[in-house]
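Hi there, hope your week has been kind to you so far. Do you reckon you could talk me through the fold, stretch by stretch? I've dropped the whole record in just underneath, so have a look:
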Amino acid sequence: MNKSVPLSRLFFSASSRTVLLPALSLVAAVCVPAPAMYAQSQAIDGNIEGYVRAMDGNALAGASVRVQNTQTGLVREATADDDGYFRVQILPPGTYSVLTAKDGFSPQQQTGIALAAGQVQTLRVALPVGSVATTVDVTADTPVIETGRTNAYNNIYTAREVQNIPVPGRSFLDLFVVNPVVNAPPLSTGGSGTGTPSVSFGGLGFRQINVDGVSNNVQGGARNLVISEDALSEVQVVTNYSAEFGRQAALLLNAVSKSGTNDVHFGGFLFARNKALSSRPFLLSDATPTPQFSRYNYGGTASGPIRKDKGFIFGSYERWQQDAPQVSTFGGTAQASAAAQLGIAPEDIASFNGSFRAHTITVKSDFVLNQSNRLVLRYNYYRDRESPLGSGQITRQVASRFDESPQSGTAQLVTTFGANKLNEFRFLGIKRDISNGVISPLTPQITISGVGSYNGNQDGTFVSYESGYQIVDNFTWNRGNHAIKAGIEILPASFKERTRNLNGTFTFTGLTANGTRAAVTPLQQAINAQSGTIDPATGRPYTYTQYTRATGQEFTTSRVVNQGYFLQDDWRINSRLKLTYGMRYELFLRPDGVANPAYPATGNIPQDYNNWAPRLAVAFDPTGDGKTVLRAGYGIYYNTTVAQTFNTFRRGNGVAVRNLTVTPTQAGAPAFTTGPVSITGNAALLPSDLYTFASEFRDPMVHSYFATIERQLMKSQSLALSYFGNRAQSLPYSTPSNLAVTGTAPNGGPLYGGTTNRPNPAFGNIYTATSAGYQNYNGFVAVLTQRARGGLSFQAAYNYQNVKGLSYLNSSNAFTNFGVLTTPSNPANPSQDVGPGDFSQPHRFTLTAVYDTHFSFANRATALLANGWTVTSRMVAQSGLPFSALTGQDNNGDLLFNDRPVGSTYNAYRLPSYAELDFRLARDFRVRDRSTVQFIAEVFNAPNKLNVTNVNKTYGPGATPNATFNTATSAETARQFQLGIRFTR
């Protein structure tokens, strides 16, 4: 690894208390006159470009172009170059008119040009010879194909789709899940519906979530804020993005909030579901009564001018209120018997009520300060109270609350310098506090292999605090047919959290046969231990298999500083060919380690200074008619490591926090108990596990490339065929060491001695994070898109992929269990875990459609009856996600329960295939001239299909699987109907 320190290290330190920012004006200084770099799309805004020609096809150099937003009055101007080419950038989404004029020619005004975030609308203007006093008005047909866009994929759901596609949780994040290019687990039609979507692209779960061009996941994987669907104008998914964007190595998920206009608008809505409108939840035992259920969403919006054409304001409020069952499958079909023998109360299993109360506020103001400056300010607040959360193989004691109160403030300032230079500055300040309270905050968690967890939650009341800010500054210089762009991004983020597993976990995995007794199942082992039964094989009471516990420092805080610097060029070579090329440098500054003097390697958190990310993409219109485009590109992308991960390593030094893994025969091991566990006396001397980084640990890196052909089929319809390839490397995982080899394990690897005969008896397992993981992805995506025409818009897509490697991507940042890296089943030979990627779904079909009735009837009553209806749907049908069968025991003695049955490969099994079909039917009624009342009926999971979200993965130690292996332990919600009403003016 290059040990040289870049200049930026002098300005930014992840461990320092202050961050010194270099002057943003230096950005302009790096823009050299030679053709350099420019982004083909903006984070919030879009571009309008085009060619001005005479009717005979000759270029009209010097033609003036005036672009105006017809809703806000915003005006921008440009002049065509010698080839008749013009470009107007960083235009907020909306509807535009374009007035083109040239002496000796009749001016032309094109109206109705719709522009979305990240779009490049390419116009072809032909001016007839004539009087300048006569203006030719043309209603523009927005191009179906974006021949000026070079990135592989830029899918947009406009306000029409956002407001009409049925989304059970009424969270805009759900719209990312139904996007054609992503892969995802089953959609959530239950729970709060406001969590972070688990979506992947290229077999990788990395993702960056933006709202209005600034981060909505500064910590890394999880979203910060929830914003009402009614506050959004569009949502967007971008892949293979340009050098302007970074920090994540796969997807850019973007949402743009609504703005006020010169017109006054306001409205309100109410959506309701209850038990009478819902089918019985899946996986409930026949003896369990159907639980109660109710859900209400209500709120409203208001917008209008502060001062015509100069200032605008938009406001939104939404309230969530739900009481819904959490289905416990603890014990499976033997639930009642197992619960009775373990002393678990009936109200803590089967189903128990989960409540959800939340609201969100959005206020946004847009100001035209003067001819050269536009300022946008936004504030968001979200308050969420949920209790308890958790379905599957747990009891109510394990389920925890989820309380959070995130809020953020953002600003965007766009400044123009003359006709060809502009600067965009964005700022974000955000904080998020989370608390996870439990019923019994001090009792240990008891986990029975293949049965579930009960008694308590290992973390007790877990709390965390995350905060950060983001500064983005981009300078653009239009120089002929080059648009040069350079910029910086600075995002410091800190994460403070309570230490996990402070209550500890007792694990029961069963006992093999002994000369004096038969084999004992995990459940019977736990029952015997709880009742104090004597084990005839030992003459002592039955007890647990393993106990884990953390003790010591209660809170840990880590801070990272993510930085990005880029330079790029958007080169319009001619009217048919565009090239985008650029370079980005990523620097993810990590915090300093905290060393244990007895093991100095714990203080080493290496820094990666080598993250150079070239990007190259081309768009070619082979026919020149704007109806076909060929795109191809290549880029290198890096992924940041979140601050929470470093907490695990900084406290896991054996001094700040002692992480214990013990067996019951070990000196000092605590006795089994269902009450609080005391770690005193000899237990205080038990060796602690350690967490360290390998000196060569690097940031995950992805080589990504694509090729696309997109063709307009009909006036508003297009078909895109795309190939995507990813080669990911430096993916992280950890390996345990400080284990004594005592023989050969069933998987052919070493058999370790567990807690005995350690090479260094002062410590337990020593986990070392390394960057040796890799993954190869090849995918094909076909997308058929119908833009709104005749009232119908739809998007249908098929996604095929093959994902294989050594990746361990079980979460959005390749870290599981809240910062702890995944470990190989055979630490001596990780290649035994090569297999399908954790996000591998070979087949996926998606469909979203919106249809407004527009019939012409001579009879007015018939016309009124037939029109005013809106029918929408969404559909997802996909392969199940893969999983590995587990024995439920520590067969190789490394003190980890990730062993597979002999001969079973990594991710050899799959969850059942998934299919979701939702519908909405709405009817509009006009009230006077400007008001509308809409009645809405929706159905989620219309076929009432059992969509399994998890199964019992415990195969058992034998050659044949347990009877409960691969049986469903959790499922999506059964069919639900929802009724709603909306008023708009």
